[in-house]
Amino acid sequence: MRALSAAETRDRLIEAATARFAAEGLSASFDVIGADVGVTKGALYHHFGSKEALIEVVYRESVKLHAARVIAESSAGNGRARLFGLIDASARLYTSGTPFYRLLLRLHIEAGADRTHLAPTARKVQHNQREYMADLVRLGQRDGSIRRDLDAEAVGYMVNAALQGFLVEQLESTETKQRWLSSFRRMMEGIL
């Protein structure tokens, strides 16, 4: 068996840290994360410098993974269909209650609370999400599937805020979450 390259080791450490942080919280130890990959905690320090730097990388990579999932779900159809694809995928994933999405929620909250070094990443993520949503609205306005008199940026802000709410609502019952999503979809159908 060949030895892993530095990049492969780094990627495996990020995957292991993501899994550990999702399962155990951000207090998971470097020793355990390293053991999951078969390296010492010294390898973690070599690749990331500190636990906080590892948490920041995990946050960025988690956001990228989520973005790839929802972009894939919102890549076909007219602007309206693509916007609803994004809403449906985001709501489904955010309310899934899986360890990954509980971790993503925890990291979003940490960015605004105790780990303010994550705030620039959080701001960039929010900006990019709103812009992507506004772009879908603009696409719909161009193709005639969304009203032209709407402010695309305002719709992007509104949809993003609602979806962030779905992320926070992980504690609600499945029926409640489905009812809220259905109500939100009806409201958006009426607005668009």
Write the layout of secondary structure elements.
Layout: H1 6-24, H2 30-37, H3 41-48, H4 51-73, H5 79-94, H6 99-112, H7 119-143, H8 152-168, H9 174-191
For the sheet with most strands, the description reads: none
User: Given this structure, which CATH class of the largest domain is correct?
Assistant: Mainly Alpha
What is the level-2 CATH architecture name of the largest domain?
Orthogonal Bundle
Beta strand count: 0
Q: Which fold name is given in CATH as the topology of the largest domain? A: Tetracycline Repressor, domain 2
Low-confidence segments: none
Order of helices and strands: HHHHHHHHH
So what's the overall shape? elongated
C-alpha Rg (nearest Å): 19 Å
* Mean pLDDT across every amino acid position: 90
Q: How many DSSP H or I helices? A: 9
Assembly annotation: single chain
Q: Provide the β-strand percentage band.
A: under 5%
